[in-house]
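Progress report, Aim 2. The chain analyzed during this reporting quarter is listed below.
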Amino acid sequence: MSTTPPGAPARELAGEATRETDRPARLGLRENWLQFTLLVVVTATVGGLVGLERTTVPLAGSEVFHLTSDLAVFSFIIAFGVTKALTNLAAGALTARFRRKQLLVAGWLLGIPVPFALAWAPSWGWIVAANVLLGINQGLTWSMTVNMKIDLVGPARRGLATGLNEAAGYASLGATALVTGYLATSYGLRPAPELIGVVFVVAGLALSLAVRDTAAHVALELARHPGAAPAPATGPGLWQTFAHTSWRDRSLRGASQAGLVNNLNDGLTWGVFPLLFTDHGLGLAAIGLIKGLYPLLWGLGQIPTGHLADRIGRKPLIVTGMLVQAAGLGLALVLLDRPLLAGIVSAVLLGLGTAMVYPALIAAVSDHAHPSRRANALGTYRFWRDIGYAAGALLAGVLADALGLNATVVAAAVLTAASGLLAARLISDKAAH
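Predicted structure tokens for the chain:
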């Protein structure tokens, strides 16, 4: 039987935090606005780095590297999705051994080669390898920024905190996709569009070095949490949390499957839309507009939807958002005779639907996870969510090669609607604490 006192984890975390800074920890957005704002800017650089790929890389696969299989073109998304998903899962366990700030900085160091590889890769294999590094970078940096923001604000403002976090990342992603489309029109698919990433890497690393760790804030929340705090999840605890989040808890299971399908349709459209709209006569600037508008609305829309999730609950936004996304996918085909209109309408609905879903899902997982297990629970949820990128790209490649791009979009619409209905059945808005 363990002899560790119930309050020991909180005291250990507090001791670590004291070595980081002598300032007393306080929970709340207003109390931590400076650190929170700094983390918002860091998240913007994280999103900008992955935004480099949204417009140009699928077209580079077919036009620069002359790949003839859609599955081969989408292989870079599969590599990114699998790596990011596994890193998300590992990130939760790594927080038991390393501070969040250390993992954040490590993620940026691993991302340094990415823009250079995308700009000058001599073969498609280099692009795939760059996306392995990008997946690790995104898994560590995005996981740590969202965890640190949740640590700072406490339980009352999680929806707003996650909304601001995701808004910064995806608005930057969308703006970068838009800019790379225009750069590609003027200067070609490579290297000019990809070299914007150097700015994101330098800025993200420099700002991350200035961020303070949030161990003291976790300790403070643990001390206030009703009941004894269990030991932090290490070793087998990760797999216990994985099983609890993935299957045993109905609400967490519902959130995990919704996150997976949400990113499945994003991964699918990431690869399919540039090829689909190019086939229907749109140029790079128009495709950049479509690929930029979707994450811009997705990002900026999360500020009001994150706040709304704190007021009306998580479930209404999750269910409605999935159904809106399904409608956006369907209308992309219904209006395809007017491809620019089809792309814009689809991008608007996909962006708004995802803006409803994203912060509400992260907040729902945080609601149902004990603070000492939250990092692992969020890591598990983000594992399932981001494995959706790989699943979407794989599904898109197989269906597009066999049945065509249109059938691939139909499949995504059906799966997204079904996931929304399943979320309505499984997710409860009753928080765990």
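The CA atoms of residues 22 and 216 lie 10 Å apart. The domain at 18-426 is CATH 1.20.1250.20 (Growth Hormone; Chain: A;). These observations will guide the mutagenesis work planned for the next reporting period.
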